[in-house]
Amino acid sequence: MAKILVSACLLGCNCRYDGKSCLNENIIALKKKHTLIPVCPEQLGGLETPRSPSERQGDKVIMKTGEDVTAEYMRGAQETLRLANLFNIKKAILKANSPSCGKGIIYDGSFSGQKCSGNGVTAELFMKNGITVCSEEEINFVDTHKKIV
Question: Helix, strand, or coil here: 60?
């Protein structure tokens, strides 16, 4: 039974910027064969829920209101990595497109709904530290008996 760190919003926790979740039944089903550990890097970084939406703009994370929340996102990523290391977790399923959790594709920083290549702050830190990351959109690549690819 593998331990997998999962974005808490995907497990039904109301921690997204809009105060809602994005419950994903396919991910919930993984608990039959794996230990799922929920995390919300934004909350661990000290951001409240609900909050203004944020997007990455280069190395910074900016709220739609114009507030720079890079420090909070970095703190949340570091705390999430601390939990992953504490529990010896090598796999994570993180929320697609998020400025914290997105992998490969994130919102482009214009708050227009457009996407671009890039990673969220936490996903980027995980990958730099040898943690395999996939999004809920890649759940078909999760073999419940093998590794996340």
Answer: strand
